[in-house]
Amino acid sequence: MRSIRIYKIIKTFLQYGLDELLPRNAIPWYVKIARIAVFWLRNKHKDKTKAQRFRLAIESLGPVFIKFGQMLSTRRDLLPQKFAEELALLQDQVPPFDGELSLKLIKQAIGEVEFEQHFKDFNTQSLASASIAQVHTATLLDEQQQAHEVVIKVLRPGIEKIILADLKVMLMFAGIVAKWLPDGKRLRPKEVVNEYKKTILDELDLNREAANAIQLKRNFSLDRPQDHHLYVPEIYSSFSHKNVLVMERIYGIGVGEVETLTQLGVDMKLLAERGVEVFFTQVFRDSFFHADMHPGNVFVDATNPADPTWIAIDCGIVGTLNKEDKRYLAENFVAFFNRDYRKVAQLHVDSGWVPRNTSVDEFEFAIRTVCEPIFNKPLAEISFGQVLVNLFNTARRFNMEVQPQLVLLQKTLLYIEGLGRQLYPQLDLWQTAKPFLENWVQEQMGVKAVFNKVKDNLPFWNEKLPEIPDLIYDYLNSGKQNHIKQIELLSKISQQQQSKSAQLSFSILSAGAMVTTALLASQAMLIPASGFAVAALLFMVKALKA
């Protein structure tokens, strides 16, 4: 089975002429002979560019490769610009599998009796179908027999086996790319495939997606005025399992349907700005962000066109940032806004993401070289995501290690910026984000931040306060005992040094006596020499005993 799949992949690559991407001088002679041997597998798409052929080949290999291509399109630090743009066109549109089989899998997970008791109007015709799962509509009856419109997401049967098999093949080809391409080490294909492996395997556990959606919904719980800018559907976790997810059905307009939104009179500028605010709120306030916000997972509630709301679904992939990551990113962004490249360079060194011995002056000059041409453009024409890509590219030249959470952040930021500019081309993302980030930095470093830290630590201090007198006594007592031990140790060392000094003195005198004895003996002065010999012997014995 695996050999058949490998043959199909090689056949696809050759028919799209992807062997032309490999440098001729780097290909071993036996591979060149093998290529000639399969002469019937020729490039059938010579009229297209290499980037187009690369995208079409991935598209023809099926859903697992398509999702990999989508992920790869966000790694603009690794791919040429044209290739990244082509891969961004990949659409994950997969024919649905049989609805009756879907119903059978759902009943097996939930339980046939419980399903019949709580669900009705199940539609075997899928509402949507993707590479990993498909969704069906139904009506859920709760304990009070109240009806709720829901969608039921179910994993494709056998999808995990298919994914694991394709991942093994991907890793094999990644090894070939790393070995043959001159730039193979920088591209790090094995690391990229392993990164994709972790992401896609996480998506196979719908319990994880349910937990992520519940967390995101709680973060935007409408307790604060700005939280109604994002709506997350309700998750019915009591009916959800690893391969089945039951959630509230939402009615929204796809964010890509710009004409429909415009016809409804939606405030596009406000919608775009709110999208940016929602993203930065997730990242810097909650440290928990939806990391797969492509157009298929984002909708708009246009019930009130003057007050549009974002709707997010499919929370299978999320990103998190710790306090150090957030501070580093926020300060970097603010420094970029102010074109303070020295601070950007220093922040990288201080964060430990580039080696401590990195020259700040050289690093600052490299960042300035990349970013100054960008700032010559009007702010509205600058790609925020591209600036982040350039920053990471430059930092990597100075041996910065790639942080997985930043890769997800970069990917999401590119999605958000693309959606925002699609809705409102004049969107000034910089101007929208700058006040938010400056306020956040101020909150983290100002008087309010100190007060909040004290307040957060009060329970811990309250618990430890009664123990402080005992801790002080133990510290002072142990200090006194350590001092006595130090004095004893120093005294012992002094005695040993005195003993060594005595041994050295006796050894020198003994050696002198022996030399004198030898000289007297050479002058035939036997009696005096014997006396010296006895004396020297006594000195030697004394020295050994000392």
Automatic annotation (TrEMBL):
Quote the EC number: 2.7.-.-
A Gene Ontology molecular-function term?
ATP binding
Q: Which SUPFAM superfamilies match?
A: Protein kinase-like (PK-like)
Q: Taking the first listed entry, what is the main subcellular location of this protein, grouped into a coarse class?
A: membrane
DNA-binding: is it a keyword of this entry?
no
Domain annotation ABC1 atypical kinase-like: ranges: 90-347
Top-rank taxon of the source lineage equals: Bacteria
Q: Which InterPro entries match?
A: ABC1_dom (IPR004147), Kinase-like_dom_sf (IPR011009), UbiB (IPR010232), UbiB_bact (IPR045308), UbiB_kinase (IPR050154)
* Keywords noted in UniProt: ATP-binding, Cell inner membrane, Cell membrane, Kinase, Membrane, Nucleotide-binding, Transferase, Transmembrane, Transmembrane helix, Ubiquinone, Ubiquinone biosynthesis
- CDD domains cross-referenced by the UniProt entry: UbiB
Location of the protein in the cell: Cell membrane
Q: Which GO terms describe its biological process?
A: regulation of ubiquinone biosynthetic process; ubiquinone biosynthetic process
Listed Pfam families = ABC1 (PF03109)
Describe which pathway this protein belongs to, using the record's wording. Cofactor biosynthesis; ubiquinone biosynthesis [regulation]
The GO cellular component terms are: plasma membrane
Q: How does it sit in the membrane?
A: Single-pass membrane protein
Q: Which family does it belong to?
A: Belongs to the protein kinase superfamily. ADCK protein kinase family.
Q: Could you tell me what this protein does? A: Is probably a protein kinase regulator of UbiI activity which is involved in aerobic coenzyme Q (ubiquinone) biosynthesis.
Q: What is this protein called?
A: Probable protein kinase UbiB
Q: Which organism is it from?
A: Thalassotalea algicola
Primary gene name:
ubiB
